[in-house]
């Protein structure tokens, strides 16, 4: 039933998103954002290096004991299972690279590090970027650190712990957030809590990106609340992710697009 709902939602999105590759966007900034951050096709030099590492991780049989934050239980998994199922795919991770690049972000926060590949993309834009990524599992964070070393990326700081407990403390020591990627707990209550905590640290050009906005009816509820929040202006709905802007010069409007 859940799968059927998801498929119907996807086809409805494709229908709504036809011919909207940035056409009809009147804000010059948002139009350039769609062309340069969403639809740009040219690969950047770091992409093949990260993708080669992703391919290697898909053969890594090391076992990990990780906490499932959904159920609160520990379970055994393998690096290769995580690499195959839990990470943003190249096309979305590369979009995040382009968002960080286009917005000239300096302070990047990711909730949900996993093996660190998406954090690696965002940090690789520029070694001056301060990328903080939060992960609950110590063992998974260990593999992510190993990956940053392999990629010679030195500007990601992983904070290990339950985001419910560590985010507020981190934000207390944070001035402004430029780009935030929400990709940890996929339940509306947690997503809204993190959104409301992070929004205290925005500036007009901050960009938030939410993963899996139609993954469940509950996630869709969170996405709709975020879109309607009075502090949010434009939003871009790419079905797999939702991009949120706060600039008061932008229209209060959701643009549905497909990648
Ligand atoms: C979907 S994966 C992140 C994938 C990563 N952003 C990428 O694209 O490469 C989600 C991660 O969030 C972590 N996580 C989920 N809930 C969490 C919580 N409450 N606190 C800390 N980490 C959490 C999980 O352990 C998992 O590694």
Secondary structure elements and their pairing?
Layout: H1 2-16, H2 28-38, H3 47-57, E1 63-67, E2 74-78, H4 79-85, H5 90-103, E3 107-111, H6 117-124, E4 130-135, H7 138-150, E5 156-160, H8 163-172, E6 179-182, H9 188-198, E7 207-211, H10 217-228, E8 235-237, E9 241-245, E10 254-256
Parallel strand pairs: 3-4, 3-6, 4-5, 6-7, 8-10
Antiparallel strand pairs: 1-2, 7-9, 8-9
Helix pairs in contact: 2-5, 5-6, 8-9, 9-10
The structure holds S-adenosylmethionine (SAM).
S-adenosylmethionine binds next to helix 6, strand 4 and helix 8.
Based on the model shown, name its key terms.
10 helices, about 45% helix, single chain, about 260 residues, two-stranded antiparallel ribbon, 8-stranded mixed β-sheet, Rossmann fold, binds S-adenosylmethionine, globular, alpha/beta
